[in-house]
């Protein structure tokens, strides 16, 4: 998948999320702590959940 922006509030991109997952993030909460994504309006949470489900 291309490196699109997932979280617009914090300018966190797809590959930033994937990297956090590689480094051990397992939940949206982990992604928040690792990248700052989903700490603004919250509308990216469902996208992050989808990425967490990818293998
Ligand atoms: S788009 Fe991610 S918190 Fe607003």
TrEMBL record:
GO molecular function annotations of the record: 2 iron, 2 sulfur cluster binding; metal ion binding
Where the record annotates domain BFD-like [2Fe-2S]-binding, the positions are 5-54
Keyword Iron in annotation: yes
The protein's superkingdom reads Bacteria
Q: Which UniProt keywords apply?
A: 2Fe-2S, Electron transport, Iron, Iron-sulfur, Metal-binding, Transport
InterPro entries linked: BFD-associated_ferredoxin, BFD-like_2Fe2S-bd_dom, BFD-like_2Fe2S-bd_dom_sf
Question: Belongs to which family?
Answer: Belongs to the Bfd family.
Q: What is this protein called?
A: Bacterioferritin-associated ferredoxin
**Organism this protein belongs to:** Romboutsia hominis
